Amino acid sequence: MARVCDLTGKRTRVGNNVSHANNKTKRKFYPNLQKKRFYIPEQDAWVTLKVATSTLRTINKNGIMAVLKKAKEQGFVVY
């Protein structure tokens, strides 16, 4: 299963480990993904989504329905 946020599309990034001698080797930066259940009152249903913790902060600020609507407009897979 891919490490991708269901609502924002945030995914693994690639960068370099840089040693003290300035040698560079490839590494990955993984998003901080959490599996979380959300209650959708309009549908009277619970949905389980894999979201980044930064997305959780946005959900707390704007509400789950606003974030789901924006994710649907951007074309990400949601519930």
TrEMBL record:
<comment type="similarity">
    <text>Belongs to the bacterial ribosomal protein bL28 family.</text>
</comment>
<dbReference type="GO" id="GO:0005840">
    <property type="term" value="C:ribosome"/>
</dbReference>
<dbReference type="InterPro" id="IPR034704">
    <property type="entry name" value="Ribosomal_bL28/bL31-like_sf"/>
</dbReference>
<protein>
    <recommendedName>
        <fullName>Large ribosomal subunit protein bL28</fullName>
    </recommendedName>
</protein>
<keyword id="KW-0689">Ribosomal protein</keyword>
<dbReference type="InterPro" id="IPR026569">
    <property type="entry name" value="Ribosomal_bL28"/>
</dbReference>
<dbReference type="InterPro" id="IPR001383">
    <property type="entry name" value="Ribosomal_bL28_bact-type"/>
</dbReference>
<dbReference type="InterPro" id="IPR037147">
    <property type="entry name" value="Ribosomal_bL28_sf"/>
</dbReference>
<dbReference type="Pfam" id="PF00830">
    <property type="entry name" value="Ribosomal_L28"/>
</dbReference>
<keyword id="KW-0687">Ribonucleoprotein</keyword>
